[in-house]
What does this fold into?
Amino acid sequence: MIRYNKLIFELSTEDRVGYSLPNSKFSDYNINDLKTDYLRTEEPDLPEVSELEVLRHFTNISNKNFGVENGFYPLGSCTMKYNPKINEEIVNFNNFKRLHPLQPVSTTQGAFKVYYDLQKILAEISGFHEFSLNPYAGAHGELIGLMIIKKYHESRGDFHKNKIIIPDSAHGTNPASVVVCGMEVIEIESNKRGRVDIDSLKEAISGRDDIAGMMLTNPNTLGIFEENICEIAKLIHKAGGKMYNDGANLNALLGKVRPGDMGFDVMHINLHKTFSTPHGGGGPGSGPVGVTEELAKFLPNPQVKKMDDYYYVENNGDAIGQISAFYGNYLVSLRALVYLLTLGKENIKLIGRYATLNANYVRNALKSTYELPIQGNCMHETVFNGLINKENDIKTLDIAKRLLDYGMHAPTIYFPLLFPQAIMIEPTETESLQTLDEFIEIMHKIAIEAKENPDKLKDAPTKTPIRRTDEVFAAKQMIFSYKDYLEYIEKRDE
It folds into this structure.
């Protein structure tokens, strides 16, 4: 095995040291004062490597990662847009980075101004009355939004309202959030044009008094605008429910229309998808939740407020409670504010236009080779159903794996679930015409290979650090630690 394909533990050599600890600042502290329950009974299992080996190991690992800064990243429904470096420069100022959440509010007025200003800007952009920045991620924001809807109904004595309507094209987190919130899902079908089927919706709510609301993404997961959104909102409101907007696709609407004006009552925003904060890697994230004036009192505590020129924290007795430590991820919120202020009102209006233009450019350039199940224009993303020519048993997975050999990340595949060979492509507004043309050319090349040399696709990828894996086995045999890895190797070699 090549040395730099090994795990850090496999590089370990007994008694090799690559560090020196500083002198303890707690020399007067007596370890015997600690309870034995808190003390180790054996040395921690740490690798013994030199500083140079550590440096080489993690540098080589980092070079194997793929991100927006490495190449084109057309992951649909995730809006993998570039994060401008000015965001990182500003959040690394010591005056921002070294604040502590337990400082007196009087000493952190600047930080609270960041929170407050971002809340107000998000409210203006999306058309809602008030925002909370407390949620740590988009799915967390979904849960909070549903908790607000639930608390609203309970405050009116409507404890029986526990059904949430969700279209079959929804993100998988939507039904999961409903269940975690203690409510139940009613799924409705999409029509042949990829939109909510109004007749199915009417049937789902007919004669019922337990409808708590509806979760809807607009534009939806097919990248299509729900043109009947006003009628949908009226039907749900007439049934006594609230409209929840999954803000995952807000990027397509910026500068064109506001969800609050469509009839939505609650919405979460993914700062990492729309407002250029770090995306992926397990966080830190942020999923702010916006609501109408009627629901504002239910937003989670603590709430950042302003009186005259002074910022303060308020805890509202009607709130759903506290759902995160302190006020949300501060440096993530700061990055989003920097991004918004850098663009200004004028340039924010261009984001949705360019995102839509890029997606339609790719859509029209590939529709002669890849099957387009829904005709017409799209918005920020486009969905194909595999190749038009389905000879040689070439699947969407083969296309995605072959794309990696050309140095581009694969699009989202097999989602949405409406089409068996779905390929979802979202180019975002930050990609150039040259990059899009290169991607289109490669996709056409792959289509030719699928017909003339299908084994190239079935064997792909061949140029990545890891070849094609068995996804089913990987999901069933998860390896979370070096100990798990050793046990797996031992069983494999038996």
Observations:
- The CA atoms of residues 193 and 306 lie 46 Å apart.
- Residues 87-342 form a domain with the Aspartate Aminotransferase; domain 2 fold (CATH 3.40.640.10).
- The chain has a mean pLDDT of 92.
- The two ends are 20 Å apart (CA to CA).
